[in-house]
């Protein structure tokens, strides 16, 4: 063809002149992929080798399920139509250029399959570097900024580990025409200064696979087939320092503060209600601030189990106060067979009043000893007191005969039939029939004292199960 420029004397041509002649339409069609002869003489697929260098990686954004990277992507392949080693033997250095050179060549169209958005970095000129070696090897390097989706599993948040991938796929050519491969040496490299604040990089690995596209999902337009794909995955583990200091330790302290109410008397409603409600509201505010950065997922996260557990303990302290306050305001004493959790709680929930029938000294319902012989009775008491004074013994063999004096303190409460027997020098809370009588106030105080130990022990057990689940399940 007379219009086709010759390649003779290519050693004396400039880089631009040589490139112009090599890519002239009579020799080069940029819409056609390079030919590569296979063993049996047919045209085989073009092998494109990829390499990535990661400059920057932003922390995973859990609420958007995405992360951002700045990377250099480099693709290497051989185009036999661009070989100039024979026509310019003295030219040993590659032809180099930027966007203008890239626009003259056929380049593989490789896209980020999990991309949300991406840009080519650069200021006045886009950061694209293209080089053509004498043997026809083409290297295209591009600095990109990409926001990629990472389908995170947050069931163990904030103790989770995430696998986030960057997926590269051939867009136009299926595996019969183009095959993507990682470079054998250092396919993916991280910048030495790369540092993640919320995560620690455990490992990184690459993968080569084939993606099947059919006409139903239109993954590759209206074309079906098997397309070559590359991916590199980073395995990240979340750092726990922030969450321990800002969430878990403060929440443990708030739960412990809610137990202070057990040391306040059951009839002190104002301080106990204020303490319980303020603790509950503070913990909810703390948990809501921590949960704003998370997406609304359908499954239960580890942080929500912790929230429900701590909320349950704080709410339990409020319920315990309402329970003992109700018992404190009761008017009737109750009899228990034994002073233990089973019998006291049973009588507290379904109280049975003290028995009215008496035998002997009318079966006293509670006995209290006084430090001195004088008996002091509160003016607010609703009980009838039966005081028994012992007569001093005249001889060791003489028997002790009690003198019984009865004082009616409040005839208005005679129907209660509450009689207290006080025997000087002796202490007894057990009736003649083996039952023990407790006042409502004694029951409330007994429950508060047991709660001081039950709640902390239960919370420790909850922590053992929770942290075992977090680290070993």
From TrEMBL:
Catalytic reactions on record = chloride(in) = chloride(out)
Q: Which InterPro entries match?
A: GABAA/Glycine_rcpt, Neur_chan_lig-bd, Neur_chan_lig-bd_sf, Neur_channel, Neuro-gated_channel_TM_sf, Neuro_actylchol_rec, Neurotrans-gated_channel_TM, Neurotransmitter_ion_chnl_CS
Question: By its UniProt entry, which Pfam families does this protein fall under?
Answer: Neur_chan_LBD, Neur_chan_memb
Q: Name one GO cellular component term.
A: plasma membrane
SUPFAM superfamilies registered for this protein in UniProt: Neurotransmitter-gated ion-channel transmembrane pore (SSF90112), Nicotinic receptor ligand binding domain-like (SSF63712)
Q: How does it sit in the membrane?
A: Multi-pass membrane protein
Q: What is its main location?
A: membrane
Q: Where are the transmembrane segments?
A: 247-266, 305-328, 453-472
Domain Neurotransmitter-gated ion-channel transmembrane, by residue range, is 248-467
The UniProt record lists the Neurotransmitter-gated ion-channel ligand-binding domain at: 16-240
Recorded GO molecular functions are: chloride channel activity; extracellular ligand-gated monoatomic ion channel activity; ligand-gated monoatomic anion channel activity; transmembrane signaling receptor activity
Q: Which residues form a coiled coil?
A: none
Read off the CDD domains from this record. Answer: LGIC_ECD_anion, LGIC_TM_anion
**What Gene3D superfamilies does its record include?**
Neurotransmitter-gated ion-channel ligand-binding domain (2.70.170.10), Neurotransmitter-gated ion-channel transmembrane domain (1.20.58.390)
What organism is recorded for this protein?
Answer: Anopheles christyi
Which UniProt keywords are listed?
Answer: Cell membrane, Glycoprotein, Ion channel, Ion transport, Ligand-gated ion channel, Membrane, Signal, Transmembrane, Transmembrane helix, Transport
The record's section on PANTHER family has: NEUROTRANSMITTER GATED ION CHANNEL
Subcellular location(s) per record: Cell membrane
Q: From the Swiss-Prot or TrEMBL record, give the protein name.
A: pH-sensitive chloride channel 2
What does the similarity note say?
Belongs to the ligand-gated ion channel (TC 1.A.9) family.
